[in-house]
UniProtKB/TrEMBL annotation:
Keywords: Secreted, Self-incompatibility, Signal
Gene Ontology cellular component terms for the protein in this record: extracellular region
Native source species: Rosa chinensis (China rose)
Subcellular location: Secreted
Family listed: Belongs to the plant self-incompatibility (S1) protein family.
Pfam families (UniProt xref): Self-incomp_S1
Keyword ATP-binding found: no
GO terms classed as biological process: rejection of self pollen
Name listed for the protein in its UniProt record: S-protein homolog
């Protein structure tokens, strides 16, 4: 009989070690996940659009994400519009804006996490100009251009 007790004791000890090992692996996985998402995904992003159109033109802009509709905005010539948001943990955050002015129109991705987390990090600046909408990277270099589509006809 003492051998049976001994076998059960050994078995309990082995199961306890396995459980502790699994718990340690789970804790390491959770810590790694939190560290990676904190390092990769910015806490807050500020996105801005400047109106540098010629001839004193106003710029009509309407920006949205899957969760937020920022409403229609009229940016006066020389004016500035900005908003901030948090990038989701999966880094799938997307804001797109519809633009309309005398130069043309278009709907463009103004913040796409898969592109912009590294490109412009936590401050993404855009400007509307005669040839289209220019994006600036984290070094404030003009590195992206959405060209205007033909101007929308007035109804």
């Amino acid at each position: 009989m003492p051998m049976v007790v001994c076998k059960h004791t050994i078995l309990r000890t082995i199961m306890g070690v396995i459980f502790c090992y699994q718990a340690l692996l789970l804790a390491l996985f959770i810590a790694s996940f939190v560290a990676l998402t904190t390092a990769v995904v910015p806490f807050k992003v500020v996105t801005s659009i400047d109106n540098t159109l010629p001839d004193g033109q106003e710029l009509n802009v309407h920006c949205k994400s899957g969760d937020d509709d920022l409403g229609a905005q009229v940016i006066p010539n020389g004016g500035h519009y900005e908003w901030s948001f948090k990038v989701n943990v999966w880094a799938t955050t997307l804001f797109f804006c519809s633009f309309n002015c005398k130069e043309g129109s278009g709907t463009f991705d103004i913040y796409r996490a898969s592109r912009d987390i590294i490109r412009c990090e936590d401050k993404c600046n855009w400007k509307a100009a005669q040839d289209g909408v220019h994006g600036f990277n984290k070094d404030n270099q003009d590195d992206f251009l959405y060209k205007w589509e033909a101007p929308q006809a007035k109804a």
